[in-house]
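Let us practice reading a record.
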Amino acid sequence: MVFQKILVAVDGSPNSDHAADVAVEIAAKFGAQLHAVYVIQMPEVPALRAEANSSAKEGEEHAQFVLARVAKQAGLAGISIQGRVEYGHVADTIVKMTTEGSFDLVILGSRGRSTPHRFLLGSVSDAVVHHATCPVLIVKRSTPQAASAP
């Protein structure tokens, strides 16, 4: 399979940064278009939205900072990137983008939640894997292996 259009979801976390590294590497290898999205989670309870709107400016500034960092990294690899900020439920927004944007691959970091948390809370990566219209690559940060005792 050749990837021509790749979406990477970023949020500034270490796992997201690692996913962006992998996305840039894959885009460079395939000569693919790379798109990055930062989704600002908005509360689903209407009463809390007004409060959330007051902090949206901070969220937008952070999102632009993260997207600029990914764009710089892509530029160093000779890859052009389109970045955008979206507002809404993170997983739903990413899934919707996979459909509307005709992406060949979506890449995102794993939060590494434990099984009970995943069962109770769900996770963005789980939801995207189950509902995206294209292949999904979940990138886990590798951790150094502890030296084994003799």
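A brief commentary: The beta strands are 5-9, 33-41, 81-88, 105-109, 136-139.
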